[in-house]
Amino acid sequence: MSHWMTLPVVLPAMLAAIIVLSARFHMNLARTFSVAGTVALTLVAAGLFWRASDGTIDVYALGNWTAPFGIVLVTDRLSTLMLLLTSLLALPVLLYAIGSGWDKRGWHFHALFQFQLMGINGAFLTGDAFNLFVFFEVLLIASYGLMIHAGGAERLRAGVQYVLYNLLGSTLFLFALGTLYAETGTLNMADLAERVSMMGPDATAGIRVASVLLILVFAVKAAVLPLHFWLPASYSEAPGPVAALFAIMTKVGAYSIIRFYTLVFPPDLEITQGLFGTWLLPAALLTLTVGMVGVLGARRLDRLVAFSVIGSMGMLLIAVSVFTETGISAALYYALHSTLATAALFLLVDTVRERRGGIGARLQDATPIMGGPLVAGLFFAAAIAMCGLPPLSGFVGKLLVLDAARDNALAVWVWAVVLSTSLVAIVGFGRAGSQVFWKAHQVAATRADGTERDAEADLDNAPDPEPSPAALPMVAIGALIAGLVALTVAAGPVKRTLDATAAQLFAPEPYITTVMSTEGKDLSGYGHGDEGYGDGESKGDDGAHGGSADDTSDPEGH
Amino acid sequence: MELLVASAVGVMTAAGIYLVLRLRTFPVIIGVSLLTYAVNVFLFASGRLAMDMPPILRDGVENYTDPLPQALVLTAIVISFGMTAVVVIIALGSWLACDDDFVEAVEQHDPRTKSADRAPRGQDAA
């Protein structure tokens, strides 16, 4: 047990406190702390990823309390992969926020950013269901602050909707956890897995309710169709870099689905049969359809990208809900790809929105923007990736999803929907891109003819006060696109790693054993002192207690 | 006791959901608060209802009430309290900035045209 694995949570938390307390009036100091912290976080995440890459599962018992009683942090292949993805996303986004000056437009951007990272990392690391709820709240409360960063009427209204929707989601999460605890008597995920697998086929109503409530909660986070309403307004109204960081937040929902439904409710468990095939897969297909139709119908560039997030979550969850090893592996590849692609698109949209002046992100005629060719080229690359056209990673991801769905009962539907929505997305992105980048030249030419319109055009499209566009934002976007290219070039090794990750997820016994057998504080001095609290035998008893679940005594082992 | 707790959870949830479906921020926030009260009571009940029993280990006591839900409820209360404060402040900001307290922009202020997915101000709907 090494203390390193607490760093992804502790480091941003300490940094955020330092930034709030001592660097709040010193923007450069706050920026330095924030960037240095994120770089350090990337290194730590890479280290943890490397350590877990041979299949090692590490458990950190917080306060040295053993697993079913205390909270544990667990690193395995999946959680370290997500940590690495988070930090690799956070660094370019942070550089963009600094380069574009977004962090100066309101208070406490860097502190909130670090708190957000703390919540996301914690959600990936924790091995305890209630702790997952707490980290969800940490990341949400930071995201509320980031969402309304720099203010504005539209943003505040979208912020109210976003906060209210997520408050309802949190309430639902608590109901799910309460049901889960009432049925099993534990909230430790490994312990839950043991106890749920021991449940008999009768009297499973409660645990079924809990499993459905949980998937609803994660579906809210992942913006699955009937629960996606919060996403378009909040993502399109949020500041560009914040929306880009939010690209990982929908993946937190997908991660939780994968984690819970491979570990606690594994696919061969009788009581949750049909949850994925009957419910989640059609919902994911509808999500993909609605997302891509939204891309086609959007009248603003930022909403177009927000809908493409919904579409990509649909695609991801199609792969998840196939629920085979190949499916999860494809889903993880698509998660890596779509996180980077949506982040790049949101940053590009923000660049376009800033440089177009008053017309903003609306898909209307306007004169060309500053640095148009470069921005257009990057947008082209990111859009290709998002639509899933060759040669970028979206194509590989889509191919993997299609391949994984081949043996599914709904394979025809999956193929039909995925392929037709790809076409819809291409048309949508093509229309938007040509409107913003190509038609601009035509508009400029027409406006140059009518001299009286020149003044208006200048007003409409007043260039930024800075003489030349800053380089740092373009570097940040370029880094994200480079990530996509790397993901494509290294698709083979990445896929092998993800296959191993999926294999580890589908064989949860080592995870459970490692968590449950980690030594901790000697508990024999507590209470009556006549029971070995930490050893394997009392755990078995606990399982039996939780299974019957009608005792008034504390099922946590007293 | 069971009936009292169950009906309290049920009534508070029903009232909360009804209020959340209103259009103005004030009833919606009250509704969310009611829902969090409901979930707190629900969490309490998830450790079984045990009357007049100690939640900590003592010599010579056979039956206990489950202490863990009490810790969970405490966390949930703190979090929901904080979140409610945040949503009140953001709603206040939105009210000051938009000059109305509608949860989403409604052009004619007609509840029937409510659609959860419309862009603020209506003019730039996707």
UniProtKB/TrEMBL annotation, chain A:
Function: NDH-1 shuttles electrons from NADH, via FMN and iron-sulfur (Fe-S) centers, to quinones in the respiratory chain. The immediate electron acceptor for the enzyme in this species is believed to be ubiquinone. Couples the redox reaction to proton translocation (for every two electrons transferred, four hydrogen ions are translocated across the cytoplasmic membrane), and thus conserves the redox energy in a proton gradient.
Gene Ontology CC annotation, any one: plasma membrane
Lineage of source species: Bacteria, Pseudomonadati, Pseudomonadota, Alphaproteobacteria, Rhodobacterales
Highest taxon listed in the record's lineage: Bacteria
Family (UniProt): Belongs to the CPA3 antiporters (TC 2.A.63) subunit D family.
Compositionally biased spans, kind Basic and acidic residues: 528-544
NADH:quinone oxidoreductase/Mrp antiporter transmembrane domain mapped to chain residues: 128-421
Gene Ontology terms describing biological process: ATP synthesis coupled electron transport
Region (Disordered): 448-468, 520-558
GO MF term list: NADH dehydrogenase (ubiquinone) activity
Native source organism of the sequence: Palleronia pelagia
Main location: membrane
Coiled coil: none
Protein name listed in UniProt: Multisubunit potassium/proton antiporter, PhaD subunit
Entry-linked InterPro entries: CPA3_Na-H_Antiporter_D (IPR050586), NADH_UbQ_OxRdtase (IPR003918), ND/Mrp_TM (IPR001750)
Entry's localization field: Cell membrane; Membrane
Transmembrane regions listed in the UniProt entry: 32-50, 57-75, 81-99, 130-150, 162-182, 205-230, 242-264, 276-297, 304-324, 370-392, 412-430
Membrane topology: Multi-pass membrane protein
Keywords: Cell membrane, Membrane, Transmembrane, Transmembrane helix
From TrEMBL, chain B:
Membrane topology, from the record: Multi-pass membrane protein
Any single Pfam family the record assigns to this protein: Oxidored_q2
Keyword Amino-acid biosynthesis: no
Protein's cellular compartments: Cell membrane
Transmembrane segments: 26-50, 71-97
Major subcellular location class: membrane
Gene Ontology CC: plasma membrane
Family assignment from sequence similarity: Belongs to the CPA3 antiporters (TC 2.A.63) subunit C family.
NCBIfam families listed in its UniProt record: PRK09094.1
Protein name: Multisubunit potassium/proton antiporter, PhaC subunit
